[in-house]
Amino acid sequence: MNASTYNLILAPDSSIDLHLHTTLSDGNWTPEQLLDYLVQEQFGLAAITDHDRPDTVAALQQLAQRKHQPLIIGVEITTLWQDENTAQRRDELSGLLEMTDLLCFGFDPEGNALNDLAQALWQRQRENSQEVYENLLREGYCFSQSPDELAAILEKPSLQQPHELAALLKRHGYGTSEPSAGRIILGAGCTFAMNDLAEVVDASHQDGGVCLLAHPGHKDGFVTYDVQMLDKLRQEIPIDGLEVYHPKHTPEQTEMYREYAHRHHLLIGAGSDSHRPDKPPIKFQAELCRDLLDRVGIQIE
Hints:
The strands form 3 sheets. Strands 7-5-6-8-9-10 form a 6-stranded mixed sheet. Strands 4-3-2-11 form a 4-stranded mixed sheet. A two-stranded parallel sheet has the order 1-12. Helix 1 runs parallel beside helix 2 (57-67) and helix 5 crosses helix 6 (181-187). The two termini are 25 Å apart. The protein is built from 10 helices and 12 strands. It is an alpha/beta fold. It has helices spanning 31-40, 57-67, 113-138, 147-154, 161-171, 181-187, 197-206, 227-236, 251-263, 290-295; strands at 9-10, 15-20, 45-48, 71-72, 74-80, 100-105, 195-196, 210-213, 241-245, 267-270, 284-285, 299-300. It folds into 2 domains: 14-117 and 195-300, Metal-dependent hydrolases (TIM Barrel, Alpha-Beta Barrel); 128-187. The model is unreliable at 86-95 (pLDDT under 50). The longest helix has 26 residues, at 113-138.
C-alpha cells in the first residue's frame, strides 16, 4: 500500500495534528468531512487515530490520497496498565478502572498483531453488551425487543457500545434522573473492554509501529501520569514516547512531559483529540514532533 505520506517533506512550521477521531469510532466528523477541513485549513499532515480501529487504516489512506491530504497511519488503543497501584484505582464517578490510551503510529496496515488485539477486544465488548442487554430485560426494563435494536448496538465500535446501551435506556424513558442510565448499565454488568498495555506495545512493535502515551495528564477516567509513574511504566514496558501537547494538559504538565521526553530521548506527539467540528483540529508546528515524524519516514527541512 502506498501511504499518503510517501516522500513527504515538511517545513518546520507546517501545521500538523496527530490525534483526531471520526465516526469510525466515537467522533462526529465523518472521514470525508474531517479530511476536507484539513485540506481547507492547509494542514501539512494529520493522523486519524480512531479508537481500536486499525482495520480502517487502508481505506483512510486511499481517501486521503484522493483528497491530497497527507495522513499518518495511526490508531488509538484503549488499554489498562496492570500495575499494582493503578489496578486498584477507579474513576470516582463510574467505578471503572482507569484507562491508559496508546497512540500507535507508522505500523504496517497489513500486519496482524494490532488488528488481532483490536478484533478480540471488539468481540469481548460485544459479548458484554449482549449480556448487559439481557440482564436489563431480566431486571424489568422494557425495550422494543426488536432483533435489530440489539444488533445495531453490537455493530458499533467497541468504545461506543456502553454509550449506546445508556442511550437505549434513555430512549425508553429510563435513567433520565437517578439512577442515571450510566449507573443502571454498570449495575447490569457493563464494562469497557480494554487490552493490556504491554501487549499493545508489543503488537505495535511487531507491526513496525511506535507507541506514545496519549494525553498522559488527562483525568476523568484515565490514569494521570507523574514522573514517578512514568519511570515505573518505562521500567516494565518499552513505550516510545509521550503525547506532550494536548488541550487537556496544563502549561505545567506540558513542560513536565516535554522535559521528561527530552531527558529520556522519547518521541513527542502533539494532537487536539478533536472529535467534532465545534472543537476542531489544532495547528501544531511540525518541528515539535520532528523525531516522531522522522521515525515514520517524514522529513522536516
